[in-house]
């Protein structure tokens, strides 16, 4: 066998998101790019904020030597301090450079956290629907996912989460604003989660950590607040990136931040730095580390995504689709009009509309639309969404007649 059994299994069960994205490339070549409506991948289509290119150009042209060599594995002290100052401005706690580790995006950061915390067989509770790459991240570090469904409105089911906690529970992993739903967990939900985790930690006699994946934190609408986990629970660690809010997904730059009040902070920070090194990341890209301090308070123009959301929601509601309007990120997660979400996504594919079935996120009976695309793509796709709905409704009527 050419590859390890675990990798062969992972290839066969690879992300449906990526499969649909690759399907889009094939269809664009066959039907023409303007006739294919690709909503599969959350790949921001906006350019970085104003001034980014100028800052980058200045850094590239800086004649001072040594800017492209190795640095401490946790990152440049100056960048870590800039991030710490940003966090201190936006949380009640006061952060220092030692509370921050620069990483290869949020995905790299999550792998660093899990490598640091998990022993073989440890479980991580994840509310669903959720980003399915988490499964692979956990497998990387011999952890096990314990999936707990959220409520119908995608709010946290704290009772179900508490019931899922057992002797093997090491952490809870949340994502807000959520991919794929756009749901923002409220202050009351997170406060309740913190109280519950503290109670369960004391009952077990050891710490249950709260890990928060936050790459969409700045992408929210109608002034909705994204509460910070650091103010809600002492034993908390956050991973984030600049991929979405600065439209820099290809630059792979992010960071991990540890709650300044966390117990055993020195050991955890040392573990994160060690994991960053031995996972092969070594350190985050030097050029991006030097660039992002100028843009910590910046973001792309989120009104663009809001207009896309509103256009899509209004049109799909008129066609009969049912959904909860997203509060953040750039995803819509409607219910499928037939039970089989894979079949309905196939119906949409017949219209050259590429979406991702809810099964890929642990929530069958839904599908995800990534609306970080041009308004023209959305507008041209709408007749196809309407035809797919009518086809599904016709199928449902036929099935009802057969049942009678």
Description of the structure:
The protein has 13 helices and twelve strands. The strands form three sheets. Strands 2-8-7-6-5-3-4 form a seven-stranded mixed β-sheet, sandwiched between helices. It has helices spanning 5-12, 16-31, 52-60, 77-90, 105-117, 133-140, 158-164, 187-204, 265-278, 286-291, 303-319, 341-350, 375-403, and strands spanning 37-38, 100-103, 123-128, 144-149, 169-175, 209-213, 236-241, 254-258, 331-332, 353-354, 356-357, 367-370. It is globular and about 60 Å long. The chain is of the alpha/beta class and 404 residues long. The mean pLDDT is 94. Helices cover 42% and strands 13% of the residues. The chain has two domains: 5-49 and 301-403, Aspartate Aminotransferase, domain 1 (Alpha-Beta Complex); 70-295, 3-Layer(aba) Sandwich (Aspartate Aminotransferase, domain 2).
The tally of strands reads 12
Task: Indicate the CATH class of the largest domain.
Answer: Alpha Beta
Strand content: 5-15%
Query: What series of H and E elements makes up the topology?
Result: HHEHHEHEHEHEHEEEHHHEHEEEH
Q: What value does the average pLDDT take? A: 94
Structural class label: alpha/beta
> What does the largest sheet look like?
7 strands, mixed
Quote the distance from N terminus to C terminus.
51 Å
Instruction: Please identify which CATH superfamily of the largest domain we are dealing with.
Output: Type I PLP-dependent aspartate aminotransferase-like (Major domain)
| Number of separate helices | 13
The percentage helix is: 40-55%
Number of domains: 2
Q: Low-confidence parts lasting 5 or more residues at pLDDT below 50?
A: none
CATH architecture assignment of the largest domain? 3-Layer(aba) Sandwich
Radius of gyration, whole Å: 22 Å
Shape field: globular
Instruction: Give the spatial strand order of the biggest sheet.
Output: 2-8-7-6-5-3-4
The fold-level CATH name of the largest domain is Aspartate Aminotransferase, domain 2
């Amino acid at each position: 066998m050419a590859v390890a059994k675990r990798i062969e299994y992972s290839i066969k069960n690879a992300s449906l998101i990526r499969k649909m994205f690759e399907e889009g490339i094939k269809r664009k070549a066959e039907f023409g790019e303007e006739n294919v409506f690709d909503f599969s991948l959350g790949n921001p289509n906006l350019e970085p904020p104003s001034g980014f290119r100028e800052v980058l150009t200045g850094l590239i042209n800086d004649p001072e030597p040594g800017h492209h060599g190795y640095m401490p594995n946790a990152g440049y002290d100056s960048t870590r301090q800039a991030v710490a100052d940003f966090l201190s401005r936006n949380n009640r706690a006061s952060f220092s450079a030692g509370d921050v580790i620069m990483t290869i995006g949020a995905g790299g950061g999550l792998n660093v956290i899990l490598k640091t915390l998990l022993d073989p067989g440890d479980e991580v509770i994840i509310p669903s629907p959720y980003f399915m790459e988490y499964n692979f991240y956990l497998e990387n570090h011999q952890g096990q996912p314990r999936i707990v469904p959220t409520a119908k409105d995608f709010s946290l089911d704290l009772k179900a989460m508490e019931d899922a906690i057992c002797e093997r529970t090491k952490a809870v992993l949340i994502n807000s604003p959520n991919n794929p739903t756009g749901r923002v967990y409220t202050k009351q939900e997170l406060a309740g989660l913190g109280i519950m985790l503290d109670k369960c930690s004391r009952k077990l006699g050891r710490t249950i950590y709260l890990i928060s994946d936050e790459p969409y934190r700045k992408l929210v609408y109608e002034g909705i607040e994204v509460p910070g986990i650091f103010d809600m629970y002492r034993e908390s660690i956050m991973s984030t990136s600049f991929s979405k809010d600065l439209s820099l997904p290809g630059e792979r730059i992010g960071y991990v931040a540890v709650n300044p009040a966390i117990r055993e902070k020195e050991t955890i920070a040392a573990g994160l730095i060690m994991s960053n090194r031995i996972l092969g990341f070594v350190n985050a890209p030097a050029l991006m580390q030097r660039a992002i301090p100028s843009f910590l308070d910046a973001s792309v123009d989120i009104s663009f995504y809001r207009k896309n959301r509103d256009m899509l929601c209004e049109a799909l509601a008129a066609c009969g689709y049912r959904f909860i309007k997203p509060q953040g990120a750039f995803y819509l997660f409607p219910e499928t009009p037939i039970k089989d979400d894979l079949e309905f996504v196939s119906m949409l594919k017949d219209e050259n509309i590429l979406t991702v079935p809810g099964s890929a996120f642990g929530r069958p009976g839904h599908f995800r639309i990534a609306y970080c695309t041009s308004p023209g793509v959305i507008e041209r796709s709408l007749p196809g969404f309407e035809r797919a709905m009518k086809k599904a409704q016709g199928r449902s009527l036929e099935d009802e007649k057969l049942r009678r």
